[in-house]
Amino acid sequence: IAISGLVVALAMLLLAAIARASADPDGKVSEASTETLRFGLEFSPFNFLDLGEEGPSVGDETLFNDVLTRNGRSVGKQAGFCKVTALTSDGFDVECLSTVSLSQGQITGQGLTTNAPVKRLAVTGGTGSYAEADGEMKIVEFGNGRGSLTIRIER
User: Fold this and answer.
1) How far apart are CA 115 and CA 46, in angstroms?
2) Per-block average pLDDT, block size 10, for the chain (155 residues)?
3) How many other β-carbons are positioned within 10 Å of the β-carbon of residue 138?
4) Would you give the DSSP letter of residue 149?
5) pTM for the complete prediction?
6) CB-based burial of residue 37 (10 Å sphere; 0-12 exposed, 13-18 middle, 19+ buried)?
């Protein structure tokens, strides 16, 4: 019985090794990892393109080019736009596209959100150190021209 238990255990180890090696054509095993990036935000002046009826209406856009900070120093920027897709009783819905530019590469985000101070976007990709990234961006507006940006990247 002890020998058959040993054989089963060795067979299980062999199968696990084969499965891991076959996960990548080069035989490399890639472990999923999560990285969290946190920044202060200094919002650019409000750029509102009033394209339809006067005031917020479907089709209007906001454009932004914000400064990302850490410990009071500029470390990158976040730029993009949001298009108004619907007027609601609380304000409006917007579809946003955002690109975060850092020295190690860029991270892109997209999502449907609102004019509320907390916005969540899906990380849709990246370049450089952030190539093949996905995850979530969380933008919080403090109401004084400043805010925070947290990016959770999964690879």
Assistant:
1) 13
2) 49 45 43 90 94 92 97 97 96 97 98 96 97 96 96 93
3) 15
4) E
5) 0.77
6) buried
